[in-house]
Amino acid sequence: MAHGPAKGIGRWLFTTNHKDIGTLYLWFSFAMFLLGGTFAMVIRAELFQPGMQLIKPEFFNQMTTMHGLVMVFGAIMPAFVGLANWLIPMMIGAPDMALPRMNNLSFWILPFGFSLLASTLFMEGGGPNFGWTFYAPLSTTYAPSTVNYFIFGMHIIGASSIMGSINIIATVLNMRAPGMTLMKMPMFVWTWLITAFLLIAVMPVLAGAVTMMLMDINFGTSFFDAAGGGDPVLFQHVFWFFGHPEVYIIVLPAFGVISHIIPTFSRKPLFGYSSMVYATASIAFLSFIVWAHHMFLVGMPIGGELYFMYATMLIAVPTAAKVFNWISTMFRGSISYETPMLFAIAFVVLFTIGGFTGLMLAIAAADVQYHDSYFVVAHFHYVMVAGAVFSGTAAVYYWLPKWCGRMYNETMGKVQFWISFIGFNITFFPQHFLGLAGMPRRYADYALQFSDWNMISSIGAFIYGASQLLFIFNVIRTIRSGTPVSEPKTWEGAEGLEWTVATPAPYHTFATPPEVK
Amino acid sequence: MSRRASMLFALVFAPAISLAFMSKAVAEEAQRWAVNMPKGATPVSNAIYDIHMIIFWICVVIGVGVFAVMFYSMFAHRKSKGAVAANFHENTTAEIVWTVIPALLLIVMAVPATTALLDVYDTTEAEMDIKITGYQWKWQYEYLGEDVAFVSELTTPEEEIYNTAPKSQYYLQEVSQALVLPAKTKVRFLITGKDVIHSWWVVDLGVKKDAIPGVVNEAWAYIEEPGIYRGECAELCGKGHAFMPIVVNVLEKEEYNAWLAKKKEEVAAERDLAKKTFTLDELMAQGEAAYNRSCAACHAGNGEGIPGVFPALKGSAMATTTGDYAAHLDIVVNGKAGTAMQAFGGQLSEVDIAAIITYERNAWGNSTGDLVQPLDVLKFKQGQ
Ligand SMILES: [Cu+2]
Q1: I need a surface site. Which of A8, A16, A436, B48 has the fewest CB within 10 A?
Q2: Which of B2, B37, B50, B40 is nearest to B222 (CA)?
Q3: Structurally, how many domains does chain A consist of?
Q4: Tens digits of per-residue pLDDT, B309-340?
């Protein structure tokens, strides 16, 4: 066990070390984040003014599709798997993940999956252009000829997620240090355990959906083709049975991260640990039975509409409990505002706003106007960007000193926070207005009355995009030349086993399990 | 919403709105900087607006409360001010309270939300039916029982879209033929799609419903005020998604009846025209216009298509074999199942189809010299 990392490129290709694999995931995710961000910049640049200035509508559709796919499957999900790899073994006192070779495999197939996907941009017919929700028959009968690459890419990405989840479940259930009962596990571990079950449940459904597409396109079946007796609405049911839990897959680990950072910088334990666990579990359960709130306009019978409306509204209860918990944790704490805390607080504020618009969207009658408009775009960027990107950024600042034994530049971190926060809101807040006034989403061009808010939104997007360059600069600078730190505990108020090991965390930790009382 | 309430709305929703009030207060300016859903022109759009505002205000009140506590702690319990952390946690009473109160609020919201939805769904007792069919990338309107049907396409010219001409006031919101409806009449819409899924949305009518192949969805509108209402396709449907607007022209009942009578005469006249024999020049001129309207979106104005997606007609075997236009006629009239090539037989007049085919066989260097007459199209249609 005592050996260190191998030399050269082989270290990364053949590694079975959870920290190395975590690092790989995080860098991969960051690269995808920049790629997806570039697509977003293309979109916002085109929408800066009415009229087509830079690209053609068909390429615009490829950009919106690839932006969504790359961000959801390439940036956000791998980022949290990376965090899980780095942190879960250290948090539960395990020497590594339970299935280290599979861990290597689940990472290394990802670049292939995304290469397949991205390569289509350079082929005749172009990349996927049917939206990240790829509704049939636009994605089947009417898809560009490259759609098979998309399908295989999704299969690979899904396989990677499933393997990652199996690994996390096996690790958490079998490798906890003696004394660490389930109800003593750190929140991040809890949220990931539940997320992993969600992933295992729904990733095969996604695989099923794309397989049915593959059959329809290449083997003459008609799952989604009305002319052959199939039903395009079936596709949406299958997709959203995956897609709705997917949004919680993205956001639950973020809840976990925030539940570590807020107590640390409030110097006060999480207000209601067990209620947080139950709230997470209830959200996960509810996430399986609300999918058709994405489909209020497909012509469901009114009974179905009402059921999905009521069930969706219910999710507000455990979600509100979470927010109240974080705020009660801050209440009468001793709060300091380092960069991770700033991002965590912004997460709570922005996520709550996104939660409110989510509640509005749940009202099926009002959804007649909101559905497929920019109001929805604003809503899900409030929950996804705030939820995943702000919390992911918070996590990197928070644990980076532990990972590399160097402290990031606090001033630069704060500057980046404020630029991101302001840029984010300038980008997405006006999109509520655009949607309410009647601008549909996924529009390559728009009527003149939408010009002003679109221009403001684009300006915000450029600011927000630029702030990410500062982030990567700060991270690289920290790794190469940040001020060295060596106390096990970087933050005064931090709790948990990961803060008991040396800083920087040695290549192998907890070769003998710690005792948890 | 009263003026004051709308001011309040704007202020709560974003400080940035102040910008809007600094600029000229003319109606158009207000529309440009619109921040809220319009109330619209139908009972349904008003019901939706009301439920939207109810939920919005409930969220605002909760939000203000929650954020007040949060900002208070952030300010009062700062370490830099010497705050010492308390150590309380786990309080069952608090947790029950903050579970029960939101649950009660949800029940309060659910009641009006349910009534509003029942309203949206009440398509009974309609006085007339309009069938709406979504195509890539246009809408077809059929006045059921009246033998009137037409296709409504974007008329904004390419030059405006590609910025070589100044944009007109209704840029991307103008169509070849508006859907004409009578005021003060309960109209039922039967909405379907022919190729991919579209969604028919007119914000002022409070109507948005997916147009799905193989499914006929229902929606309704009772429009009090005559006027022009504009909308758009709301479901991603391919490259022309942003370019298939909706215009609804609502007339007083008598005017509407007059319009309908005139429309029926036009239909009859068009049928007669199909029996006439045209010259090549006539067909080429009409064909070019009709081609640009109905076919150029996919096959491109220069006939070259988009490689890998839409085939070129320029130089294609089907359009260049002199004398043999049966296959060409067949694919235009009947489309090709399982592809984006739709059946135009029911969308275009015989004259238009004949003109387009003649045009395609004699333009861009295709030089068959073939002349296809409307009567040929008619015979082909009748013969199948
Ligand atoms: Cu459409």
Answers
A1: A8
A2: B40
A3: 1
A4: 889 999 888 888 887 888 899 999 998 877 88
Domain extent, residue A266, equals 18-499
Q: Residue B11: pLDDT band by 50, 70, 90 thresholds?
A: very low
Q: What is the pLDDT confidence band of residue A420, given thresholds at 50, 70 and 90? A: very high
- Is the residue at A515 inside a domain? no
Q: For the sheet containing B138-143, what is the strand order?
A: B148-152, B138-143, B128-135, B186-193, B217-222
| DSSP per-residue letters across A432-474 | HHHHHHTPBSS-SS--GGGHHHHHHHHHHHHHHHHHHHHHHHH
Residues 190-249 of B with CB under 8 A from A: 195-197, 199, 201, 203, 206-210, 212-215, 217-218, 230-243, 245
Is A322 in the active site? yes
Q: Would you call B74 and A345 a contact, using CB atoms and an 8 Å cutoff?
A: yes
Provide the token pair at B100.
């029960």
Report, as an integer, the average pLDDT of B95-102: 90
What is the pTM (predicted TM-score) of this model?
0.90
What digits encode the pLDDT tens for the residues B132-168? 999 999 999 999 999 899 999 999 998 999 999 999 9
Residue A13 lies in a domain: no
Closest partner residue to A125 among B67, B201, B309, by Cβ? B309
Cβ B357 vs Cβ B305: under 8 Å: no
Which of these is catalytic: A132, A135, A307, A443? A132
Which of A300, A334, A370, A456 is the mutation pick for testing B, counting most B CBs within 10 A? A334
Question: Which tokens go with B76?
Answer: 């009062």
What CATH number has the domain bearing residue A96?
A: 1.20.210.10
Total Cβ atoms within 10 A of residue A385: 21
Q: Is A137–B196 a contact, with Cβ atoms under 8 angstroms apart?
A: yes
Asked if the Cβ–Cβ distance from A444 to B242 is below 8 Å, we say yes
Q: Is the ipTM beyond the 0.90 threshold?
A: yes
- Domain for residue A426, yes or no? yes
